[in-house]
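Incident review: delayed structure delivery

Summary: a single-chain prediction request sat in the queue longer than the usual turnaround. Root cause was a stuck worker, restarted by the on-call engineer. No data loss occurred. The affected request and its eventual output are reproduced below so the record is complete for anyone auditing the incident later.

Affected input:
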Amino acid sequence: VNFNGCKWVTDKGLAGLARNKRLREVRIRGTSCTDKSLYSLAQFCPALEWIAHADFSGRPKFSDQALKCLRDACIQRVIC
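Output delivered after worker restart:
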């Protein structure tokens, strides 16, 4: 699923999508998602293989703790 640049995509919306345990790829650059979204993905999407979240503004969007939680929860992953 590609939500890049969709500022109206929020934690609540992504949490609903995350309940699809077969979700394998999500792109959330330029959305309104926060750490809560990463925790939802970590909790409900163990098969997640790819998440694109990088913010090139120079300000980290997600905490290291949330990224580590997602990394540790997913079986196969590429996080960029």
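Verification: The chain has one domain: 11-79.
Action items: add queue-age alerting; document worker restart procedure.
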